[in-house]
Amino acid sequence: MKPRILQLVDSFNEGGSERQALQLTRLLRDSGRYEVFLATLNPEGILRADAETLAYEIPSFPLNSFYDRNAGVQLSNFVRYLRTKKIDLIHSHDFYTNVFGMTAGFLAGVGARIASRRETNCMRSRGQLFIQRMAYSLADQIIANSEAVRSKLVDEGINEKRIAVIHNGIDMTRLEPDVPTSREESLRVLGLEKATSWRVFITIVANMRHEVKDYRMFLRAAQLVKATVPDVGFLLAGEGQLRSSIEEFATRLDLTASVFFLGRCQRLSDLLNVSDVCVLSSKAEGFSNSILEYMAAGRPVVATDVGGAKEAIVEGETGYLVDSGDYASMAQRVVSLLLEPEKARAMGEKGNRRVERKFSSRALLQNTETLYNSLLANRVVSADSAGPMFLADRTAMDQERS
């Protein structure tokens, strides 16, 4: 009988955690080694259609607050679900699902429980940190998606033996066009027919929901790049409530004619096909999917040296790292790549090979299965490990979601 594995996701909104969780669910299902289940706290989101191809049912356990009666009802419902489905292993993917999932898994007697941590910047209240620590105490293992995140967990007092580093994985085929595509055709598909006059393009793929992505740093760098390379265009792929303020900032920098806001880009292969250099300007990250996607597509990268960026980018070989906020250095590195296209091309090729070797979906599946099998082989239902679980107010924390 195949082990029964459940993936618990917070929602189906577009985000790194959600995309990685759904990709892992697909990989595990396709491997045929497990019976795979999927559940969520919030059934809404643009990725819902993708999720429905992975499971014939996706139960949801919606929460408004961890204090009200509904929280207890949903926790009870989830415990009952885990027992009814005889789940052998539960894997949660972010702060909210860690709290809810590890608590329910413990109460249901699920033999193997895995929490996840994807960020280094843990800007939580004292109460939230307590909740997070309790959730971790209920987990058999905590997956960190980078060595930087692992180090942060150790600094917070988590025993390093309970931490497994499994980097994000990229489906390389997702970045390959269905048929060979010209630059002009890719621009047309992206709705950029009028942008064909621009000789080169600099691209950033990041959400516009949180200031941590620091689009203002990117635009300040763009202003300096344009002063040296006038025929450059800038492609911004992302959506969120900050878009209008980012557009206003681009106007203040006199970049309106050179900056193209693409929103959520569903044709990533076409976007990267027209890109000459790709950038990430974040103030903080865990391990960026965007950097891996850039490299997988064979594009040189200039990124801020935060989180696990240095674990992906080999300085001077697959791209460059600059300090967070140092837009002048970012601009200098971008310009150097634009002025030396052969060097940029070589960097991109090295980046592609590095992703294929270390950060592919194949590597993600292999490393995850190794951890799962180890836990399943040694699973023991513990009756004493953590004591009571106190749940914090979810409503007050929703604005911090990524």
Molecular structure report:
The chain is an alpha/beta fold and 402 residues long. The chain folds into 2 domains: 4-169 and 360-400, 3-Layer(aba) Sandwich (Rossmann fold); 172-358, Glycogen Phosphorylase B (Rossmann fold, 3-Layer(aba) Sandwich), CATH 3.40.50.2000. 42% of the residues lie in helices and 14% in strands. It contains 15 helices and 12 strands. The chain has helices at residues 16-31, 48-52, 69-84, 95-108, 126-137, 147-155, 183-189, 215-228, 243-252, 268-273, 289-296, 309-312, 327-339, 341-358, 361-377, and strands at 4-9, 35-40, 89-92, 112-117, 141-144, 163-165, 200-205, 232-237, 259-263, 277-280, 301-304, 319-322. The strands form 2 sheets. The protein has a 6-stranded parallel beta sheet, with helices on both faces. Helix 3 (69-84) packs across helix 4 (95-108). The radius of gyration is 22 Å and the shape is elongated.
